[in-house]
Amino acid sequence: MKLQFLGTSAGVPTKQRNVTGLALSESEGKGWYLIDCGEATQHQLLHTHLTLNTLKAIFITHVHGDHSYGLPGILASAAMNGRKNPLTIVAPAAIQQWLAATVLHTQLYLPYELEFIDADTLPDVKFEQLTVSTTALSHRVPCYGYSFQEIAASTNLNIVKLQQDGIPRGPLWGQIKQGLDVEVNGVKVSAQHYLQQGHPPQKIVVAGDNDSPQLLAETCRDGSVLVHEATYTKAIADKVGSGPMHSYAAQIAAFAESINIPHLVLTHFSSRYQDNGPTTVMEIYDEAKTQYHGQLYLARDFAEFQLQRNGDFAEVIAE
Amino acid sequence: MKLQFLGTSAGVPTKQRNVTGLALSESEGKGWYLIDCGEATQHQLLHTHLTLNTLKAIFITHVHGDHSYGLPGILASAAMNGRKNPLTIVAPAAIQQWLAATVLHTQLYLPYELEFIDADTLPDVKFEQLTVSTTALSHRVPCYGYSFQEIAASTNLNIVKLQQDGIPRGPLWGQIKQGLDVEVNGVKVSAQHYLQQGHPPQKIVVAGDNDSPQLLAETCRDGSVLVHEATYTKAIADKVGSGPMHSYAAQIAAFAESINIPHLVLTHFSSRYQDNGPTTVMEIYDEAKTQYHGQLYLARDFAEFQLQRNGDFAEVIAE
């Protein structure tokens, strides 16, 4: 799977960072998923290789505008780009109501179907290559995390062994690949002897705004990557108070350390952290680093990360 | 008055042009008005000198998303920037309903008042320096043009004459400036003798989407500048058919010629015209030029134009 950040700023856009949006691409083919859709997410897409015709579903973590106000425009542009395929939207029910009001009042015509799935029911949603499960988080409004798990480990034939044992290539190999025991020259042969397990299915957990990381403990089990907000450092979080219900760097980092998740990507930075200002996101990095000893990353707009089937995870550096 | 284009593309954003938005600044002070607010208008503002605290009013020409989907985000960001002053919104009633639904479903909190004025009633709206009048246009949905007229010609004291005639500087001059006759040494003195008329008030007409330019004939009388869409050239308009209800270059140019308006700025170009593609906006310019002999301009994102009090109009070239 691949991640590309489309917006990494909390609340308001800055010159360097848009409000929240994240693209998750499938390992095979061109299908991708959008998690959150702040205003101008469609504008960000113009600078990537992602197209609105290969978008399979949109997941919205919560109703706040910096996570959702790009929805009407992206749906309208998909229509103008000629999209005909249904589009799945997994979101709080209020988003469905808001889009219905938008269609009505702004005379938005969509020549494709929207298939809504109510995130408030904590659904598991199955796609060809992925199952997405939903976790309730803690924020000022109902808010969710989505975990993207590859559907099956790939199972491979041990071809060397098949050849050594003289199992003839052809239909028998196909049956063994499906896990079926076969007969060769009247002798029963166990499929399991000739199957080698691929890597275990990988999982990426993408959280919405959340002041209680421990709510993700269960869903992060066997996860390779956690993408979570770190809106502030602790000093600023203390100054701002608990009203906004966000996480700070040390808090989410300590949680990630406690569950031993190997890769943590922080995002959703307060606009007070400017890349070339007196207060930079490196303060968030430095604070998180004191608590977490796995691989730590700060998201930037357009940064791409690849999670290999073997669990390797790294930033894709554009050539 | 000053114009700065924030978006000049029709329907969808491109890498070079955002969807519609136009800032009109008052001649004196920092007050400004926003005409249309396509998605990411607030993002465009980050690259200008305009601030959300000095925004006096937003005018929406019609409900289509490429003219309105930036509204929720710009209102939310104004709130987060600490705006407390009421904000006037002149728009079709459906926009008021859509924003009410947006406030409800996305839990948008605005710590300032919105003062809605229903464009469907064709209001005249008075501000300190300007009166804005509304004209109904012809499009697929109710659509309006807004004309911004300076409130009064500036009237100046003829100081040379006052001094020649020995009228003592002080309160008397103030009364004369207000057009009041005064007595000097028992002699009645007419204020009109000492007032010299400034330039006539300037007018800029900004139209929404419209397939019938002649609807603007009356409001363009005494206008200095007309800003109007030219979505296509005639060849493309013929191919597309009359369904979209837009103007083409020769059509709006011929209208501008017929009413003798001295300055015409074309905008809202179909995304098929790319600045560095095989089909460029220069086709629109060339077609318009055959019909119009005034000063013709094509809008670009961030282009600024100044209309002087004497009617001079020119692009402001950044140093």
UniProtKB/TrEMBL annotation, chains A, B:
Its EC number is 3.1.26.11. The active site is at residue 66. It catalyses: Endonucleolytic cleavage of RNA, removing extra 3' nucleotides from tRNA precursor, generating 3' termini of tRNAs. A 3'-hydroxy group is left at the tRNA terminus and a 5'-phosphoryl group is left at the trailer molecule. It comes from the Bacteria. Zinc phosphodiesterase, which displays some tRNA 3'-processing endonuclease activity. Probably involved in tRNA maturation, by removing a 3'-trailer from precursor tRNA. Belongs to the RNase Z family. This is Ribonuclease Z. It comes from Shewanella electrica.
